Amino acid sequence: MAIKFGKAFGARVALFTHSKHKVDDAVALGADEVVLSSNESAMKEKHGTLDFILDTISANHDLTTYVNPLKRDGVMTVVGIPENPQALALGSLISPRKILAGSLIGGIKETQEMLDFCAENNVLCDIETIKLEGINEAYDRMLKSDVKYRFFIDMKKSF
Predict the structure, then answer these.
(1) Which of 122, 127, 132, 125 is nearest to 154 (CA)?
(2) Which residues of 41-59 are buried (b: 16+ CB within 10 A; e: fewer)?
(3) What angle do CA 32, 66, 106 make, to 5 degrees?
């Protein structure tokens, strides 16, 4: 969804991923560029080039790796919450004047604004429809990271 929102806002969107298998999906969703975070030279090329980064990573990761691509006065907003505290080289924020922020879900007003924006700009979720009887299998797949998109439980076709 972050890719779709970025494109709907008119941004040039780059996706950072450690998984090569996400490249085709990212491009299909509208990403202008995909950077493999495991590729040190590709990451170095991005240093100081981005205005904004949305960090959605819920796993433990090195925040400094993702702060470095920001331009002066660039902002990284973190929305994923890793299990353990994360380290950050503070020099990567202070000297180049970068901003690190966090965000949770908004209230009713913000949620309505987001839904209105989605309707006006045809920003739609990619879903996998399942029946209620398949909820345990869906949960097991989620634990194995075998889910590309959101699950949608079709209650009409269940039972």
Answers:
(1) 132
(2) eebeebeeebeebbbebee
(3) 80
Report the SS3 class of residue 33.
Answer: strand
Distance in angstroms (rounded) separating the CA atoms of residues 71 and 69:
7
Strands (E) in the chain, as ranges, are 14-17, 33-36, 50-55, 70-78, 99-102, 127-130, 150-153
Residue 66, φ and ψ in degrees, nearest 5: -95, -15
Place of tokens 């400094």: 64
* pLDDT tens per residue across span 92-115: 999 899 999 999 888 999 999 999
CA atoms of 110 and 105, how far apart (whole Å): 9
- Selection from 25, 5, 142, 20 nearest residue 77 by Cα: 5
**Are 40 and 68 a contacting pair, CB within 8 Å?**
no
Q: What percent of the chain has pLDDT over 90?
A: 72
- For the entire predicted model, the pTM comes to 0.82
pLDDT of residue 76: 95
Phi, psi at 90, each rounded to 5°: -60, -25
CA dihedral 34, 39, 44, 46 (to 10 degrees): 0
Does residue 46 contact residue 70 with C-beta atoms inside 8 Å?
no
